[in-house]
Amino acid sequence: MAKGTIRAQEPYYRLAATRDEYVAFHYPETDPLPAFLGPRCPPLSDRYPFAVKKLWKPARRALDVGCAVGRVAHDLARDHELAIGVDLSRLLLDAAKERGAPARFARADALALPFPDGAFDTVVALNLIDRVPDPARALDEAARVTAPRGLLLVGSPYTWKEEFTPRSRWLGAVGDGGAGVRERLHPRFSREDETDLLFFIPHHARSGQLGRTHIQAFRRQP
């Protein structure tokens, strides 16, 4: 595991405020967005991360890379015999484990995944590549552990920031990067689909972050 990688990423993700924001976002007790958007607000089931489960089919083994507090990993566990979520942040992993669902969790670096080649039928890497120091390497690792004919979901709003990723390693401009992801995975993977899922991260009663995560579905070649 790359110690430099851990030092570069973890301070923000060690904050209790970060954990609490993630938990409120991924496991909301009520939906705060209708108060901002009114009756035309799309339901939670059509937004990120709740709609991601519509993008895969049941299979045997699944991996959530950068699982944070585990929402998607828990959804994967309902459709797979085994689902594992990995993250660098112990604080977020502890919050994921507290949800009590059947997914398993482990601390691991997205740039050096501790799994053999082709180990998983479904791999998701969501809102991750713009938060690591080497996005291309993160994609290569996610691709490596995806089984032949397996599904790889890569999603990001591409909010590139130099505090996480050196500018020279960005896969596109701020707000973009889909083409860079496709180029990195080609020809090992063919893209099957893409979608944008709305997300809303509440800050308080009058403030929040509204955005869209661009998700591409790739199929690994035999």
Which features would summarize this protein structure in a list?
single chain; Rossmann fold; seven-stranded mixed β-sheet; disordered N terminus
What does this structure look like?
This protein has 222 residues and is α/β, with parallel strands linked by helices. The chain has a single domain (3-220), classed as Vaccinia Virus protein VP39 (Rossmann fold). The protein has seven helices and seven strands; from the N terminus they run H-H-H-E-H-E-H-E-E-H-E-H-E-E. The chain has helices spanning 3-13, 16-26, 34-37, 71-79, 90-97, 135-144, 178-185, and strands spanning 59-65, 80-87, 104-107, 120-126, 146-156, 189-204, 207-220. The chain has a seven-stranded mixed beta sheet, with helices on both faces. Strand 2, helix 5 (90-97) and strand 3 form a beta-alpha-beta unit. The longest helix is centred in the N-terminal third of the chain and has 11 residues, at 3-13. The chain is globular.
Quick description:
The protein has 222 residues and is an alpha/beta fold. Helices cover 27% and strands 30% of the residues. It has a single domain (3-220), classed as Vaccinia Virus protein VP39 (Rossmann fold, 3-Layer(aba) Sandwich).
